[in-house]
Amino acid sequence: MALAVAGVAGAVALWVGATGAMLWATLAPDERSLAATLLGPRAALLLLATVALLAALAWAVPRLYRRWVLAPAELADQARVLLGSDSAPDLPTQPGADLQALAQTLNQLAVQRRSCGPTWRARFGWPAARSSKSAIAWPP
What we know:
By secondary structure, the protein is mostly helical. The chain has five helices and no strands.
């Protein structure tokens, strides 16, 4: 996680530096000296604004990562366990309405699959559980 925050901080610092360099390159020599005179005393304010932006990103990136990357990955792992076993517990409550709806749908699918019984699965060649690589036990 610290590596992700450091990567975002580096990307923002690179972006701010590149933007400043592009802006500086478009100025004539007399404009550059005027800009340096005007912005010199306010450099601390620009640095403070950049640090505040980095702090906001450091706060937001882990939360966004948990919500949009880790939560779906954990749901996929839990779904593999649920659909690969007849005795697995239902999927827990998920963050967000979209993942919650998917978890409820997978729980309903597991209930339907369990209600089929072992004779129905044996008739169609569906084993009770498959390897962990398959989310749904499918006929071979």
